[in-house]
Each structure stands twice: as C-alpha cells, then as structure tokens.
Amino acid sequence: MFVQMPASSLAGLLSDAADTRRCAASPSPQPFRALRLDLSGHRRDIAHLPEQTEKTQDPMSIPGQTFNDRLQAQKEAKLAMLKRAQEKQLDPAEKERLMEERAARNAAREEREQKRAAEKAAKIEQEKAEKAERERKKKLADEARKKAREELARQQKAARDAKYAARKARKKR
Fold it and tell me: CA-CA distance, 134 to 148, in Å (whole number)?
C-alpha cells in the first residue's frame, strides 16, 4: 500500500535519509537505497486534480482526509450552525413581549436600588446623629467629672484650712 504524499515532501524525505546515512559510520557517501517509493504519478498535488470530486474518490486516500474534504466539512458545519441560529430567533411579537418584561424588571430593580440607597443614606445619617449624641454626652460627663474633681479638691482644701485654723486657735489659748 502506498501513502499519498506530494512529490516535494517525498524528495525531502529521501534527501534527509541520505544525509543521515552519510553522517553514519560509513566512510563513502552512498545514496540511501533501502527506501524504495513509487513516485510515478505523484508529480502534482492529487488534492487539486479536476477529476476528483465528491463522487469519485481516489482509491488510495481515506475519505474526509484531503484538504477539500475538510474544507467542505467546515462549510457544512458553518451552514448548519447558521441554520440553527436562525431557528432559535424569536418572532417579532414574542421579542417585543420579552423586551417589555425586561423593561419592567429593570424598572423594578432600579426602584429597589433607589429605595436601598435612600435607606442606606438614612441609616448613615442616623448613625452620625447617634455618634454626635454619644460625643456630646461623653463631653458633658467629662466636664461633670472635672467639676466634681475641682469641687472635691476645694472641699478638701477648706477642710485642711479649717483643721489648721482650729489647731492654731487651740494653741493661742
């Protein structure tokens, strides 16, 4: 059985094989003769022959493996894909109904988002007010503690002064 290949690639194989043979241990450069291929009739690319059509296949090639077969399969696949895409398209009335439903959903979503944003802004404002109230109460408590401390210090000083005055008054007698 022969493998169908263009002549140029077969010539490349032969020259590669001859090169590897020369590089081997053999001292004299001899052509590589172990590979015997029938090159008759393979001078042109068989895939481009005018008589080769879908109905008359080359008996030596596997169906679906030549370039034209693969190109034809690609075209058929593309046409089938386009046909499926056209079948999936909706009629204009159905498309209009779906667009109206989508618009209604989008409007409802927008309304929910606005409501959520308003609630979030109100919550932030409330937290700011609560924080300001806590700060105000803390400041009042700090001032009250400071006044109480000052008052305590003044009372303690007055008690000490009264104690010393009483002691001096007893000594004078």
Answer: 21
Give residue-wise pLDDT tens across range 20-79.
544 444 455 555 555 555 555 554 455 555 554 555 555 566 766 788 888 999 999 999
98 vs 108: CA distance, rounded Å: 15
For residue 97, CA distances in Å to 87, 90, 101, 102, 169 come to 19, 11, 6, 9, 107
Banded pLDDT at 87 (limits 50, 70, 90): confident
CB of 48 within 8 A of CB of 57?
no
Distance CA 89, CA 76 (A): 20
* Single-letter amino acid code for the residue at 143: E
Longest dimension (CA), the chain: 153
Quote the strand ranges of 100-150, DSSP E: none
Q: Cα–Cα distance between 25 and 18 in angstroms, integer? A: 13
Are the C-beta atoms of 29 and 22 separated by less than 8 Å?
Answer: yes
Q: Which are the contacts of 47, defined by CB distance < 8 A and separation ≥ 6?
A: 66, 67, 68
